[in-house]
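User
Class, as today's exercise, I want you to study this protein, comparing sequence with structure tokens, and judge whether sequence predicts the tokens.
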Amino acid sequence: MGATPGQERQAGGTPRAALADLLAGNRRFVSGRPVHGHDVTAAAAASGDQQPYAVVLGCIDSRVPLEAIFDQTFGAICVIRTGGHVLDRAVCGSIEYVVGQLGVPLVMVLGHERCGAVAATVEALRTGQRPGGSLAHLVDEIAPAVTEAGIDDPAVQPLAIRRHVRRTVRILREDDLLAGPVAAGRVAVVGGLYDLATGEVALLDSG
């Protein structure tokens, strides 16, 4: 039986091929024709050495299960989820590992509509009431995108979501251990936006 999409990364996989495979999976998901499910036989088949072809950094939102929306099986993609896909040293180190040690050619930062972390940041900046605990870290990291979008703009939240994705992409492209592979074209860092209503993922330009 041949490998299904994303199940086996071919040697010398390119960023373009990885992105095409990821988006093809999203189209299968949206069309209601996914090929992958949570089957223990698939887990057993992928229990040896892993060869993922992409790492996806997304939000913790329960409505955005990353393996499902890209229709990926066990061993196909590495997934990292934080509130509002906020970066920290552990996240960056994890991405550096899968790129440097596992040879993954694609990093996707995936935001989504109606992000609660962005909404919380907008509220904190408007009221001047910074939350306590580690939640403050999320607000601090998302705040630049909200400020850029314009705190008084009625459409600040959807604008800030897009700006935050683009800002995260820029930070990762400039990461000390990722900048070289990105410049050489061996690795791509891209941003996307998930539509909660339709299930579709749209790529965002880097502007």
In short: The beta strands are 54-59, 77-82, 106-112, 188-194, 201-204. The first helix runs from residue 15 to 31.
